[in-house]
Structures are given as structure tokens and as C-alpha cells.
Design brief:
With 753 residues, this protein is mainly beta. The chain folds into three domains: 110 residues, Nuclear Transport Factor 2, Chain: A (Roll); 108 residues, Nuclear Transport Factor 2, Chain: A (Roll), CATH 3.10.450.40; 317 residues, Beta-galactosidase, Chain A, domain 5 (Distorted Sandwich). The chain has ten helices and 34 strands. The chain has a 16-stranded antiparallel β-sheet that branches. Strands 11, 12, 13, 14, 15, 16, 25, 28, 31 and 32 form a ten-stranded antiparallel β-sheet that branches. A hairpin with a 2-residue loop joins strand 26 and strand 27. It comes from Eurystomus gularis. It is an enzyme of class 1 (oxidoreductase).
Amino acid sequence: MNVKTVLILLILALATIFALVCVLLTRGRAPSTCQHRPPEQEGTDDTQSLVFADLTPEEMVQVVRYLRGNLGVQLVDASHAKPSDNCIASVDVQVPAKAEVLRFLDGGGARPPREALAVLYFGNQPDPNVTEYVVGPLPMPAYHRDVTVQKYGRKVPYHSRPVTGKEYVDINTLIQRELRKAPRFLAACCESDGTDLAILTTAPRGFKSGDRATWFVLFQNVAGTGYYLSPVGLEVLVEHGDLHISRWQLRQVFYNGKYFASPQDLEAAFVTNLLEVIGIKKPQAEAVLGSMRPRHPPGSPGPLQYEPQGPRYSVRNNRVTFQGWSIAFGMNLNSGPRLFDIRYHGKRIVYELSLQEALALYGSNCPGGMSTRYLDGSFGIGRFAYELVRGLDCPYTATYMDRHYLAESETPKANQNSICIFEHDSAIPLRRHFSDSQSLYYGGLRKSTLVIRAISTLINYDYIWDFMFHGSGTVEVRVHATGYISSSFLYGQGTNYGNRVGLHTLGTMHLHHIHYKVDLDVDGQLNSLETQDMGYEHVNVPWSMQNTIERPYLRRERLEREDEAAFPLNTPMPRYISFASPNPNKWGHPRSYRIQIASSSGEHLPTSSPMERSISWGRYQLAVTRRKEEEPTSTSIYNQNDPWMPMVAFADFINNETITNKDLVAWISVGFLHVPHAEDVPNTVTVGNGVGFFLRPYNYFDEDPSVDSPNSIYFSSEQDAGACGANPLACLPATAACAAHLPPFRYGGFLNL
């Protein structure tokens, strides 16, 4: 045998050994087990959802450029504008009218022109006011029209405008300047000269239309911790309604149950021993009440959620699809998350599902606490939806989306990764049955849910907004409250308004009320409202006439008018309320979607209150009205600072119009009472502090649509349940060998503050 032959045989042997090694290394694992399987795409055009899309930064810049060049007035950048200046307060997308959108989506009509809504403060005018313009078409604007009176029926008074960051800075400067007039008091009460105290706003700002006077509560401020739990007992009332900052005044001072006309009067009372001062030492960061710094080193990691073959949902532009679901998503600058054109297997169920408002109403024996009724839309629920923390706020492998906004500046800003989308295994069956009689079998389906989430930080509170889509055709909406409680300085009968949670800290009781708009289109735009509940009828037993029985029966009713369909809080409501189509399912019942509310809301405010009309949506746990373009929202950003003459009063929407076979909207209120307690320190937990509602199919289908899920499990006593071919759960050991690819952790949430 020559050398050439030996070399050939040696090469063949090495090749054989290499092939055997490869076979052994991959033995027991199907070649496709770890390959990414892109989700199947629905037939809808991915670009159609852009009719609802939030503005891009480039579009915002073009709107600002157009306004600067075409309004004929001098505009100052809002980030440093005085009340006496003109400025662009905000720019957001103007969603087209529903009829235009449906002609485009369903009728093959032209795409509606893309437009923006610009809010401007005109302080440098003989009649200062707030004006709203629709600007278009984008991306290159050529026209603008004033829609203020069209939207609100009158001009927006200047005093009702939201407070800007620049205005807060100027107020803070005024407070610090005035507090320097009470140096000995500040040293005794707070170990401070006033410049290192945190200042918290309250709202609304007075007692009648035109007022702009705000109580500000002062706290010890320790870097890296929440100051909300460290009140020093000092509160000040600032009058800041004048266009000229030099005319603003500190009107009153409150300390430890007593009111003073000025800091000088407070200082004089202290010097003459007419004031009891409770000295509060400046706390250290590691010992401050409410510190969130970890007290122990990290433990072993918890369970990790990941998709072994990649996500089973798809996100393109502003549209997400998942196992038959299709949803267009976005974020309103003021009111927060909103969804459009929600479809299941190609059929639209909801045209619009949007957050409207979040109310937090407080009680206290201190002026700031007792007068606080925050309407968070005025502050910016969407604007303050910051970057989400990967692996804690949402699963590590979720899909994260950026949002852009333009507010109080002429430069767009980004909240990176501020919406997350993920599939959630709820660790509970969606449905299941174990048969132990007749035939023996097990059948079930895991409850896997698509979640769209954002979290807004509104001063002390963090609201977690969840929109969930289930395999049964159900939409679930839920909000959880966490973050810091607000507090007052504890004095006198303070515990009539909450619980003591610190040495001098009263956790103040408060209500959370959240309002949603749900424009259901169940099997078409024209729906009616049907209710069902149970009653008892006393009947003779047919087979034993001498005996009687209480037989449950179903009471069915179709509500004809809006007044019948407005269900006040704390009053009985039919347990089944459905939007019904005129079209029947296979079994002859109207194809319907049921509204099921999970909430413990109490009275939002007595109707005798002069500011109640501004939050009159809170009167109702559910109200169903005719849909109107001129009633797009249940509230207004101007209601916060002029609740006595609100620009939008929801109660006016309910005027007893007929609601049979009409395009209808459900307005849903959810909420709860929160009495802070020791366990709210350092933070309020989400457990038990969540409310929401469901939109559930009710005879909409002919059977549960999840029967078509490819993830169903079934095996009988005659099958080998451990065989991968008979039971997909038996395939999991091989699937689990697919290692998750985790991107490196990054966080940029502090960049735009």
C-alpha cells in the first residue's frame, strides 16, 4: 500500500469520526427544536394601522416649524416661557374621524390626511387664552384651523391651562425667597435654610373659576429616597395667577395646625414662644423612612420567562398580532395608552379602547392634603410613562417600544422602551377537565395571554396599565397602583384621615378612580344594550303539586335610552350587560360582548360639590352613550385648574337619546379606596391594589374559539402520556434545551429628566 492510499484512507477515517461525533452531539434533539418560528401573519395590511400612529419626531418638528412661520405672533420656547409669553404647549396626533377611518380600512377609501393637534398658550395678547389648532397635512403642513370653540363650545380661559415646569421653577424660587424670612424657625423645625426642602404641588388651585392659588407641602429631601414620607409640617399657599411673576405672592403659611399670614408672622410667633415647634432632624439616606435601597445582598435568581423558538407574536409599526388578535397601539400625551381597531380573526370587536383619566382624591387635616384632587391627565399620563426596567417591569425578553412626545418644549423627546409587549404564561389553565367516569382522559389548554403594558409615574404614584388579550376572545384591562403614598404631617386628630406610618407621618386616605372609553363594534357598528340577571319564581313542583320550589329564571331586558344605561356607583347593576349585534349566532342568540367590571369604587365626590361636574364621569360605574365625534373624551386637561367651570362635563353626554341599533360607547369607571398603613412603607404593593374590567364574548361565537388553538393538550388512559407524539408536554425537556438569548441590560430612563 503506497503513501497516497494511506493518506486517502486516513482522511476518510477522520471524516467518518467527525460525522459520528456530530450525530452523537445532536442525538435526542430534533434539528428544528430551537429554530425560530416566525408567527403566522394575518391578512391585514401592516401599513393600515398607521392611520392611528403617534407622531414621529420629524412630524413634530415640521409642525413647530409651520406654526412659527404662519401664526404671525412671536413664540417663546415653552421650556423658558413666562405666563406673559406665547408658546407651543404641546403637539400630538389628531386621530381622524371614525367615519373617514372606516371608509379607508373597510371600504377601500382614501387614506385620511394625517394631522396634528397643537395646543398653544397665548399670554402675550390683550385677551390671554389657550387655543387648539389642527395642523396638516403631514409630513409637510400647509394649513391650520382653530378648533377650540368647535371642541369646547367656548374659548379656553388662560387661568385653566396646566402649570408648566417653568412655572413650578418660578414658584419654587418665590417660596425659597420668602422662607428666608423665617431663618430661626427653619433651623429649629427642619435643620434647614429652606433651600434643601422638597416642595410638592396640590391641585386644584382655589375655590372658584379664575383662581390660581396653590398649596405646596414641604418635605425633607434626602437624595436617592422618596421624600413623600417625610413632611416637616410646613405648607405654603402661593398666589400665581398674575401674568407677571413679580406680582406673585405667598399668601399664607401653615405649620402644625396653625395658619399665619406670612413667614415673618411665623418667625415672630416662634421667637416669642407662641408656637410649638417639633424639631425634625435631617435623616441619613440609609435610615430615612421609605428608602428602597436593598437591605440584603442578592439571593438566587427566580424563574425566567423566555420563548424557546422566539416570540409567538409579531410587532410591525404600531400593530401587534398574536394568535388571531390584531391591535393598533399608541400613547396619548395627556391621557396615556390607547388602542384602536382591535380585531379577532379578522373581525373588529373594539374600534377604540383608551384610558381617559385618573383621579386621586385625598383627605387630611392639613390644607394641602384636604384640598387635593389630582386629575392626572392634566399632568400627562402618557408624557410621564418612562422607560421600563427589563426583567422587573416586564419580562426580560419582552419587546420594548419607544414613544416620542412634544410638550413644554419645541424639541421632541423620547421615552425609550416605554411600552412593552409580551406573551405571558399565567400558570393556570385557560380551561381543563380530568374525566374520572365513563371514559378516562385529560384535556386542557394553558392560559397564554398577550400583554401590552405601560407604567406612568405621576408624582408619587406609579400606575401600571395592562391590556391583555386571551385565547378565548376576551379582552382584559387592568390597572395596578404602586409607588409612594402621599402623606401629611401628623398632628391633632390626624388619624381621622389615615394611619400613622412614621414618627411624624400620617399616611393620608385617598380614592383612586380611573376612567376608560370603550367603543365596541360587535359584528358591526350598530349595537344595542342588553341586560340579564337572575330572579326567582315561586312555582308548584310539576311532579308533586302539593309542594313548591323557588326556581331561578333569567330576566332579559333591552335598554332603550341613555338614562337607563347610566348605572350610578354603589347601586345594583345587572350582572350581565352586553353590547348586542342584530345578527344571531348559530344558536339564534344575538352575537354579543359582555362588559364585566372588577372594581370597588366608592363615591367620587358629593354631587353638591361645586367641582363635581368636572369629574362627573365618576358618578357612574358604567354609562353607555351614542357615539359622537364631538364627544371624543370624558374630560379635559383644563378641568384640573378650573373644575368649577369645566371645559368638558361628562354628565352632559347623557341626554336620554335612543341607544337601539346605534354606534355606542361604553364609559367605564374602576377604582378603590386606599387607607395607607404600615405595610405601605416603603412602597404600596400591587397585590390587592388592582382593578379593571373584561370584555367577554357572549354568544358571539358558536363555541369557545380557543378550541382551534394548536396548544391544546389531550391524552387518554389508553395513550402513553410520556410520548412526545401523543402529548406536547412530553416534548418540553427537549425544548428546554434551547438556551434563551438575553440582550445585555441597559437603562436610559434618567436621560430626559
